[in-house]
Amino acid sequence: MKISVGDTLPNATFQSMGANGPEAHDLDSLTAGKKIVIFGLPGAYTSTCSTAHMPSFVRNADAIRAKGIDGIYCVSVNGLKKWVPIQHKF
Predict the structure, then answer these.
(1) One of 49, 54, 74, 80 is an active-site residue; which one?
(2) Which residue, among 12, 40, 27, 21, has the nearest Cα to 81 in the 3D structure?
(3) Can you tell me the distance from the alpha carbon of 90 to that of 59, in angstroms, rounded to the nearest whole number?
(4) How far apart, in whole angstroms, are the C-alpha atoms of residue 11 and residue 25?
(5) How far apart are CA 48 and CA 24, in angstroms?
(6) What is the pLDDT of residues 66-88, one digit of tens each?
């Protein structure tokens, strides 16, 4: 599915690791009226994702926000628990 600027995303529920375990997040409520960036990781624990993909978004988060972006979201098919400590930098 190709997503373009201005497209309406289908609603979905995502999970993130919270202080007391998994927390559900509704995509509609995360994105309503906001400009967002969504990026995906093909393998959360692969060397390229750990050393290049995720760190590049963390490193550039302020510059991305400076362009009017309200939220930066990472989607992965496997667990992101390794990166939970950096989620609040976004």
Answers:
(1) 49
(2) 21
(3) 10
(4) 10
(5) 28
(6) 999 998 888 777 655 555 444 54
Check whether 90 has a pLDDT greater than 50.
no
Residue with tokens 């390229």: 48
Angle at 63 between CA 61 and CA 66, to 5 degrees: 110
Told to judge if 74 belongs to the known catalytic residues of this protein, a careful annotator would answer no
Give the H or E element holding residue 54.
Answer: helix 54-59
The one-letter amino acid code at 53 reads H
Kindly report the pTM of this predicted structure. Answer: 0.70
What is the pLDDT at residue 63?
A: 95
| Structure confidence by residue, pLDDT tens digits, 40-55 | 777 666 777 667 777 7
- Structure token pair of residue 26: 């509704």
Question: What is the residue type of 21?
Answer: G
- The upper half-sphere exposure of residue 76, i.e. CA atoms within 13 Å in the direction of its Cβ, equals 20
